From TrEMBL:
PROSITE patterns: HTH_CROC1 (PS50943). This is Transcriptional regulator with XRE-family HTH domain. The keyword DNA-binding applies. It holds the Pfam family HTH_3. Keywords: DNA-binding. One of its GO terms (cellular component) is cytosol. Residues 13-67 form the HTH cro/C1-type domain. Signal peptide: none annotated. It comes from Spirochaeta isovalerica.
């Protein structure tokens, strides 16, 4: 058996056993394993099979997750503060890049989804009525009034409305109001802010 085991939970098992006032022999009998094996597991001398480990946790009446809590992978949380957002202005539209999904190992943002806050000034529009592009889009109108021209269809959009569509059909989102149109926009694959 290896001397340096990756997962060392023997101390936790011994601590719970002692708190419950159980002997090595009692735990072994309950788990249907030898007293010697329980002792070796507690001293991190052996790595038990999953079945043995489950039997011991049952005997001690503990949740197996307790033993592995310290080994859970730590995931990164990416926070993009409002003042740190990347922005891009095209015609009368401002695109603000929101947080993107990071690779947990490298910390880079090679993701398949792009999220943006978009602001379209009165009379402004985004998109192209002549060309579509590969992918899909989802939008939520946060404020203002607009219309989506999608192929030969026209859809009026108000605050609180949400929409989704295939991007390969030519489309335009246009501000119809006298105030800016603000929307949360999700595109896959990314088009505006590419890494």
């Amino acid at each position: 058996m290896p001397k340096n085991l990756n997962y060392r939970f023997g101390e936790k098992i011994r601590l719970v056993r002692e708190r419950r006032g159980m002997t090595l022999k009692e735990v072994g009998a309950e788990a249907n394993v030898s007293e010697s094996l329980v002792s070796q597991i507690e001293r991190n001398k052996v790595s038990p099979s999953v079945d043995t480990l489950m039997a011991i946790t049952d005997a001690l009446d503990i949740d197996p997750e307790y033993l592995f809590r310290d080994y859970k992978k730590k995931r990164k949380v990416q926070i993009t503060h409002e003042a740190q957002r990347n922005s891009l202005t095209l015609n009368n539209v401002i695109y603000y890049q929101l947080a993107s999904i990071l690779d947990s190992e490298t910390g880079t943002g090679n993701c398949e989804v792009e999220t943006m806050l978009i602001e379209i000034q009165p009379g402004g529009q985004k998109g192209d009525i002549e060309y579509g592009h590969p992918g899909n889009e989802i939008g939520i109108i946060l404020s203002g009034k607009g219309e989506l021209l999608y192929g030969t269809e026209t859809h009026i959009l108000n605050k609180g409305d949400s929409l989704s569509f295939s991007s390969d059909i030519p489309h335009i989102l246009r501000n119809l109001g006298e105030e800016k149109l603000e929307a949360l926009w999700i595109i896959t694959p990314p088009r505006v802010f590419k890494d």
